[in-house]
Each structure stands twice: as C-alpha cells, then as structure tokens.
Amino acid sequence: MRKPILAGNWKMNNNIEESIELVKKLTRQEYPVDRDIVICPPFTALYAVGELIEDTRIKLGAQNIFFENKGAFTGEISPLMLKDLGVEYVIVGHSERRQFFNETDETINLKVKAAQGHDMIPILCVGESLAQREGQIAENIVKQQLLGGLKDISDAMASKLVLAYEPIWAIGTGRTATSQQANEMIAYIRSILSQIFGEDKAQEIRIQYGGSVKPENITDLMKQPDIDGALVGGASLQAEDFQKIINYQENK
Ligand code: PEP
C-alpha cells in the first residue's frame, strides 16, 4: 500500500509574514494519519515555516536545489543548506524550471542525486505540453524525462523518490486533466519505473498528479488506482482549500 502524499508548492508567493500566517492556519488542524503532507514555501520563508511545523504532521519541502555542496555558485542553494533548514522533500524539474530556467534532464538528474545523497526525497516532475499531447508524443516525452532524470539512480535509492505527473497544459490554467487521463499517464509512468527498477520497486514508488488540483476534483483523482497524491500550486496558497484537499475522503 502506497501512502498518499499531498504537497503544496507555494511557488514565488508569500513573504515571511504571509507564510507564517498561512502555516499557522494549517497547523491548527489535525489531519488523517494515513497520508503525508508537505509544504514547499519559497527559500526566504523556509526557516520561519520550518520552526512552526516542527513536531507537526507537516513536512518541509523546497522548490529547487543545486547539486554542488558549496563554492562559487552565486545565487544557488546547496543540499547542505537545505538540510540545515530541516528540509525533507525537494521539488526537482518542475516545468516552470524547465521552461524559464532551461533545466535539462541532465541537470535535473544531478539534482535528484544531490537530494537523495543528502537524505532528502526529490519530487521529480514530468509532463508534456499541449502541443506534445496533441501531437500524440506525450508518452515519449514523459519517458524521455524519466530515463534522463533517473539515470544511474540505484534500485535502493528508488525507495527515496516521489514522482509528479504534471501536464503543462493543466498547470495554473484551471484546466485539469480528467482523472482518467491522469491515471492513464501515471500507470504508464509506473510501467517505465518497472522497466528501470523492476516491478516490486515500481509498485512502491508514489506518483502524484499535479495541475489545477482543487477541493472539487481531489476526491475523483484520488479514486484512481495509480494516483498516490497531488502536487498543488494555486490551491495550496489558501489554507481552507489546501486543508480540504488534504482531507479528501479515502475512497480507493
Ligand atoms: C504546480 O505548480 O505544480 C501546479 C500543479 O500548479 P497549479 O495547482 O496551480 O496548477
């Protein structure tokens, strides 16, 4: 049984005060113990948020990582710095980073290894654009991202990994993949994971869906057999919405 994982990606939103306000609302509630909860604030709020979620069910995540430990890399944040802040999860290869910051499968692979090498769990994002889906090459694109991003990751390390299927056309657009479309691609991702790590490991790895997840569609998405959670952007900025998403009714 894979434990569902609900993660909030705050992106480049919320200053320290706003982050504290949001996290205080989130920590006021108890959540079902059968699921993991992660929030990924911007770097500038990680320390303050980390302090407030210590000893709660909510885990700290970062939105990016650099793959060197230290040195002349102006503007980058190292795995050691994230560890120092108590970060346990790191989003890697988000489509916005691929698109706006030219991240390649090669650098994403180095980031996956850097996170795992420092005992943090990468949430590796993959997903196709609308043109790629319409051109019927979505599976090829996702396969390429998986093979590149997971290159030379050992079977042992496969247990320290979360995947997120995020079709670019559904991110921040209000246009969600149907739960069937999401499940189909996630099942395909699992079949590729099985080729890479073997069937047993592939059955262990959690794969989230991301793309306009809201309180209104989470239940339906979580009904799908291969969907193990959600990576939530916009709706994770509203405490009430994110809480409703976390508290979806168990229904598999
Ligand atoms: C995301 O940023 O990973 C995301 C899925 O955003 P949204 O939920 O706003 O579509």
Give the termini distance in whole angstroms. 11 Å
Uncertain ranges: none
- Overall radius of gyration: 17 Å
Q: Mean pLDDT, rounded to whole units?
A: 96
Quick one: how many beta strands? 8
Bound molecules: phosphoenolpyruvate
CATH evolutionary superfamily: Aldolase class I
Q: In words, what does this structure look like?
A:
By secondary structure, the protein is of the alpha/beta class. Helices cover 41% and strands 15% of the residues. It contains eleven helices and eight strands. Strands 1-2-3-4-5-6-7-8 form an eight-stranded parallel β-barrel, surrounded by six helices. α1 (16-27) runs parallel beside α2, α1 crosses α11 (239-246) and α5 packs across α7 (138-149). The longest helix has 19 residues, at 179-197. The chain binds phosphoenolpyruvate. The site of phosphoenolpyruvate (PEP) has 14 residues, from β8. The site of phosphoenolpyruvate has 14 residues, from β8.
Compact summary:
The protein has 252 residues and is of the alpha/beta class. It is built from eleven helices and eight strands. Helix 7 packs across helix 8.
Helix/strand layout:
Layout: E1 5-9, H1 16-27, E2 36-40, H2 46-53, E3 58-62, H3 79-84, E4 89-92, H4 95-100, H5 105-117, E5 121-126, H6 130-134, H7 138-149, E6 162-165, H8 179-197, H9 199-204, E7 206-210, H10 215-223, E8 229-232, H11 239-246
Parallel strand pairs: 1-2, 1-8, 2-3, 3-4, 4-5, 5-6, 6-7, 7-8
Helix pairs in contact: 1-2, 1-11, 5-7, 7-8, 8-10, 10-11
The protein binds phosphoenolpyruvate (PEP).
